[in-house]
Amino acid sequence: MKVAVIGNSHLAAVKAGWPQTDYSITFLGGTQGYGGFFDQLHSDDEGRSWRLADDAMPIHHQLWLQTKGDREPYVVDDYDHVFVIGVGVPANPWRLSCCLQTPGIERLREYGVAPISYAVWKRAAHAYYQVKRLTQVTQRFSSRSALARLWHVPLPMHREDIHAFFPDEKPPASWLLLDEKLQALTLQNEWSLLGRLYSDHGLRLLPTPPHLIRDGFRCPACYSQDALGSRNFKPNQPSQWGARPLSDINHLRHKNAQYGAEIAKQIVETIDRQQTKPASLPVFLTDGESDALH
Amino acid sequence: MDRHPYRDLDREAVWRTAVCELRDRDPSRLYRPKWRIDKGFRIAIAGSCFAQYVGEHLRARGFTVLDLEPPPPDLPAEESRAFGYSTFSARYGVLYTPRQMLQLAQEALGERAPQREVWERRGRFFDALRPAVEPYGLDSPDEVLMHREWHISKVRELLLTADLFIFTLGMTEAWVHRATGTVFPSAPGVIAGEYQPELHLFEHFGYQEVLSDLSALRTIILSTRGERSSCRFLLTVSPVPLTATASEQHVLCATIEAKSVLRAVASELVRKYPDVDYFPAYEIIASPWNNGRYYTANQRTVSNQGVAAVMQAFFAEHGGNAEVTPMPPPSVPVAPAPDGVDDSQCVDALLDSFSK
User: Fold this and answer.
1) By CB count within 10 A, which of B56, B73, B95, B270 is most buried?
2) How far is CA B307 from CA A34, A48, B165, B277, B311, in A?
3) d(CA B134, CA B121)
4) Do B73 and A124 touch (CB under 8 A)?
5) Lowest-pLDDT choice from B81-85, B173-177, B283-287
6) Which of A197-211, A272-286, B190-204, B320-334 has the lowest mean pLDDT?
7) Phi-psi region of B42 (alpha: psi -120 to 50; beta: other; left: phi over 0)
8) Are the C-beta atoms of A8 and A38 separated by less than 8 Å?
C-alpha cells in the first residue's frame, strides 16, 4: 500500500504526528511563499509525473528533498492513496447557508436567513471555497483514473482567540444569535454542502474532525502551542511558530504535532475504510459538465 | 362661424399635428401623470418581462425600488438574474396576467390557500407558480414548499409596505388548473411538469375578467393595509407582443386583442380610482408614433433605445434624468438579442423554440 501525503507548510504538523503504519508513505511538501509550491510544479509527460520547474526557487528544491527524500519526480500512478493538505478552505458555517442539505436547517429562516437552492449556493460558494484552485491542484497529483484515491484535507482553522489580535475576526453577530443546536446543525449542513460541491467537481473532501472545531470555524488554542511550519520538514528543528508572536496571522493558523496526529489518524482510518469498501470512481467533471448538473 | 367642441383643440389632441406632422418625437409629450412620484416612494415592481427594465432604470436613477428577496452576497451579479434575483421586487418571476398577480396577492394576504403544486423534470422539482426562478430545480418537493413559504412571506411584506405598485400588464392568455383555477406562468411541460388535458385548461381572459381582477387586486391590497398607509398603482401595458398564442387566432390578432383589453381596462381604472394612473409605455413603443423603430429585427424585442425612450418620458415628469448611477452589468442572456434587452427571464420567449 503506497500512500502520498502532500501539502504546503501545513503538512509539517501531519508529518510530525504520523503514527506507525504498515503503509509505504511518501511525504511531499513545500511552502506557499516564493511563488507557491503547487504553482512550481511542471510535467514533461502530460501529467503522468511532476517535478519542480527549472526556475523554481532553491527553497522549493530543498523542501522537496527534505520531505520526499529524493529529487525524483512525483509519479501519479505510483500511489494507491493521495492526500493533499492545506489547499481546501474548511467549511464555514458563519456563511449561514440556508440550503436544505440537512433536515432542520430551515430553522435559519426564523433568523431572517432566506433559503437558497443548492444551485445558487454552489455558484455563490465557488469563489469562496476556491474550487478552481482545488481542481488545478488535483490535476497535479492525480490522473482521471486515480481520482477515487485522492482526498483533500482542508486548511486548519484559525486559533479560537484570533479576534484578540484581529478584532474583525470575531464570529459574526448573526452566528452568535443562533442557539447551540442550530449552530451544530448549520455546521453539519455546511460540511455536507461542501462535500457535495467537491463531489460535483469529482473531488473528495476529508472533513475536519468535529473535536478540532470551536465556534463553528475556529480551532482550540491548544493545537497552536509549538505550531509547525515548512521549516520543520527538516527533522529535529524547533517549532517554526513557537517563538513567533501570536499577532502573526500565519501563526494563528498553523498547528502542532498533536493536531497533526489527529489528522493523520483520520487519514489512516480513511485508508482502512477504503480497503474494506473501496469508493466508487467519481467522474471527473469539467466546469461545464458540473454546471449542467446544477 | 359654427361653434363645436373640436374647434379650438390643442395641437396634441389632433392626429395630424400631434403625430403625422410632428418632427420632434419627444416621448414625454405622451405622458400626463396624475400625481408625482418622488424618490421617497418605496416602489414595488411586478408584471411582465418589460417590468424588469422599468425597475432597472428606476434603481439607476436613485428611486427606491424594493427588493425583498435579494441575492446572496457572494452570488456573481451575472448569475443572479438567471435565478430570478434582482429582477422584480421579489422572486415571483414574470407575472403575465392580472389573474396571476391577483392570486399571488390573495395567497400572500391570507385569502387564498397556500399553493403547493410542485412540478417535476428529470428528478428535479419546481414551484409550478414560478418555475423559472430555479432553472435547475430543487432537490425535493419539501424544499420547493419551504422556499415558497418564505417567498410568500416576502410578497406579503412587499404588499404591506410599498407606497407605489408598478404593474406591467402583459397577456390575457393563461393555462390554469381546472379544479382550482390556479394560473400557471407557463404551460405545464414547457419548463417542467407535464401537460394533462384533464387537469389543465386554457383560459382567455376578457375585458370584464381583467377589470374585475385588477379591481380586486387593488381592493385586497388597500383593505389589508387599512388606514395604516395609502398606496398608489401605476399601470403600464407591455409593448412586447406575444411569442405564441393558444387562442387559435393569428398571433398578431391575439396580441392586439390582448393589448387592447389590457389598455382599455387600465383606462377604466384610471378614470374610476384617484390612486390608479397609467404610463404610456405601450404607446411610445408600439404605436405608429415611432413606426416600429423601437423594436429589434425580430419585431418583438424592445430595443435598448426603446426602453430609454420610455424611461425618458417617465423621468421627464418625475425627475431623475440628471442623476444617473451606473447601471448594473448586464446578465449573460440565454438567447441574446443583438441590440435589444435581455428577455432570458421571459418564459413566454421560450415558446419560440416550439414552432414547427
Assistant:
1) B95
2) 53, 56, 19, 20, 6
3) 12
4) yes
5) B283-287
6) B320-334
7) beta
8) yes
Q: How far apart are CA B342 and CA B72, in angstroms?
A: 22
ipTM of the complex model: 0.87
> Smallest Cα–Cα separation from B85: which of A124, A291, A93, A197?
A124
**CA proximity to B129, closest of B153, B140, B145:** B145
What is the DSSP secondary-structure string of A182-249? HHHHHHHHHHHHHHHHHHHTT--B-PPPGGG-BTTTBB-GGGGTT---GGGGSTTPPPTTTTS-TTST
- Paired residues of A28 in beta bridges: A6
Mutate to test the interface with A, among B83, B140, B147 (most CBs of A within 10 A): B147
| Cβ pair A100:B83 closer than 8 A | no
Q: B274-288: per-residue pLDDT in tens?
A: 999 999 999 999 987
Q: Which residues of chain A have pLDDT under 70?
A: 144-148, 276-294
Radius of gyration of chain B (CA): 20
Residue A172 burial (CB < 10 Å; 0-12/13-18/19+)? exposed
What is the C-alpha to C-alpha distance for residues B266 and B261, in angstroms, rounded to an integer? 9
SS (H, E, C) B129-144: CCHHHCCCCECCHHHH
| H helix or E strand, kind and range, residue B107 | helix B98-108
B38 and chain A in contact, CB less than 8 A = no
Q: How far is CA B153 from CA B43, B127, B156, in A?
A: 18, 15, 5
Which residue in chain B is spatially nearest to A123 when comparing CA positions? B75
| Percentages (nearest 5) of helix, strand, coil residues in chain A | 45, 10, 45
pLDDT (0 to 100) of residue B329: 33
Q: Residue B120: pLDDT above 90?
A: yes
Chain A residues closer than 8 Å to B122 by CB: none
SS3 letters across A240-276: CCCCCCCCCCCCCCCCCHHHHHHHHHHHHHHHHHHHH
Q: Which residues of B are less than 8 Å from A117 in CB distance?
A: 83, 134, 136-138, 143, 147
pTM of the model: 0.88
State how far Cα A165 lies from the chain centre.
24
Partner residue facing A123 (CB), from B79, B140, B150: B79
- Reduced to 3 states, what is the DSSP secondary structure of residue B311? helix
Q: How far is CA B192 from CA A59, B197, B245, in A?
A: 57, 16, 19
Task: Please tell me the distance from the alpha carbon of residue A164 to that of residue B163, in angstroms, as a whole number.
Answer: 46
Sort out which chain A residues have CB atoms less than 8 A from B136's CB and list them.
Answer: 117, 119, 293-294
CB half-sphere exposure, B309, CA atoms < 13 A = 25
Interchain CB distance below 8 Å, B146 and A117: no
Looking at residue B27, its amino acid is: P
